[in-house]
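Subgroup meeting minutes
Present: P.N., E.W., G.H.
Scribe: E.W.

1. P.N. recapped why we're keeping a running log of single-chain structure predictions: easier to compare across weeks, and new members can see raw inputs and outputs side by side.
2. G.H. added today's entry (202 aa).
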Amino acid sequence: MLVSEFVKCTDFPCLDVNKDCYTVPNVKIEPDKIDTLMISEAPPQDPNDYFYAQNNPFYMRTTAQAFRDAGLTVSSMEDVLNLGVYVTTAIKCGKTGYSVSSKTVENCSSILETEMNLFPNVKTILLMGDTAIKAMNYIARRNIGKRIIPSGSTYKIRKNTYFYKHVRVFPSYLQTGKSYLIEKSKRKMIAEDINAAVSAQG
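Output recorded in log:
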């Protein structure tokens, strides 16, 4: 399955994003082999930095480092996929500022929901940062009538157990961007969350 054939934005309604950076994973996946979804924030401004780009892209490097911090042998996105982990973003266009509006996250959460539904055997979901957490809550409200991740600082809520239907959900921190490389305490928590999510695949 080529993900980009099934996951698309058709009308681009959002006003606070860079549509020139619109990116959906253009990667062939065996959906039945995916046990974990890792949902990051947004595509990079430079498409060459995107997870599935060629030639050691920056987003892949920080993501691979996060998995290595978790004690997993990873050096490429292929290695991540071989662990049963599919990586994507909560919003599909680039950011124009530090954050995006709630309306944009809500709009994109419908696209993310379509993407999530491609993978029937998912057991765990990693929400990497506030945007992914917010998108997941929009999806939960539409489907089960309530948010699943409470408000509050991530370091306070991440130790609790959350479920969306039968899937365990882990709120965590963003594993992309230059700040990842310097925030050692967040790196440690990200590693713990990745390890817990992969271990819970069953």
